[in-house]
Known about the structure:
The protein is α/β, with parallel strands linked by helices. The protein has two domains: 16-279, TIM Barrel, CATH 3.20.20; 288-325, no CATH class. It has helices spanning 21-29, 35-48, 77-84, 104-107, 128-140, 157-168, 186-203, 218-227, 249-255, 264-279, 288-295, 301-308, 314-325, and strands spanning 16-19, 52-57, 92-98, 118-123, 144-149, 174-179, 206-211, 232-235. Helix 6 (157-168) packs parallel to helix 7, helix 11 packs antiparallel against helix 12 and helix 11 (288-295) packs parallel to helix 13 (314-325).
Amino acid sequence: MERNNGNLIAFRPDIKVVDCTLRDGGLVNNFNFSDEFVKDLYRTNIKAGVDYMEFGYKASKEIFNKEDYGKWKFCEEEDIRAVVGNNDFDLKIAVMADVGRTDFKNDIMKKEDSVIDMVRTATYIHQIPAAIEMIQDAHNKGYETTVNIMAISKVREDELTKGLEILAECDVDAIYLVDSFGAFYPEQMRRLTDMYMEVAEKHGKKIGIHAHNNQQLAFANTIEAVTKGASYLDATVSGMGRGAGNCYMESLLAFLRNPRYNLVPVMDFVQKYILAEKEKGSIWGYDIPYLLTGVLNCHPSSAIRFTGDRRTDYSRFYQELLDHME
């Protein structure tokens, strides 16, 4: 398979932009988006030329209480259809299924009965056998499939290489490089994408990138992955996502040299909905606590608590993080 390397001004017809606002952004507000927000985001993605819209999770109702979350934690078929109808547009619909948190055999129906196009499986390195079972199930039901290996900044390189090889041998269409803690720098992203691409090319797979913005590098790292051959690019409107958030959709669409992408509808959506979302109290985006968890390569949960408690004693927080690493 010929590698689709590029540079900063290259046209890449293989690129697919994936909007993760409802799924990653849903972690900010427990998926409590208004119906108007979701319907307008769907229309915005169509107008903007976005390739995939991820509606949320296929979470198990045996594990998660439906009363505690908005509908996009569970992505029931009728709820998606209430927004998209039969989805008579080029935009494809995606959902995410976490290993161990999804009743995939019962809650993911056959593709012929669903408006969903792609099932994205999220796994940690030690869960790969279970992830493969889920991927095969989705593939056999007729879906496009991708897999996110999370928290790879904590994984030994030899273990990661072995995991990539095992995943690449199953019926997955794309394997995602995920910077869960926003810990990677562009030079590391280049080397990691090369590693992923080497495995992908051997097995005829695509590579995706899902970046977090703890060190204000989500956009830069996404660009680095693109130039090394990554095809599936995750972003959220105004970077909305857990903690420091993600690659900004506005930045990504402005960067891509492809006439099918249109930035204007996204800017209009930001004006109408994102500013109001922040006024309602939803908090995400770069801040010093997230910078510190990114630099120290640790989960942002402690920074989320720090921010929620309205603390500003940053040096003390830094020492607390260092103490936990000893």
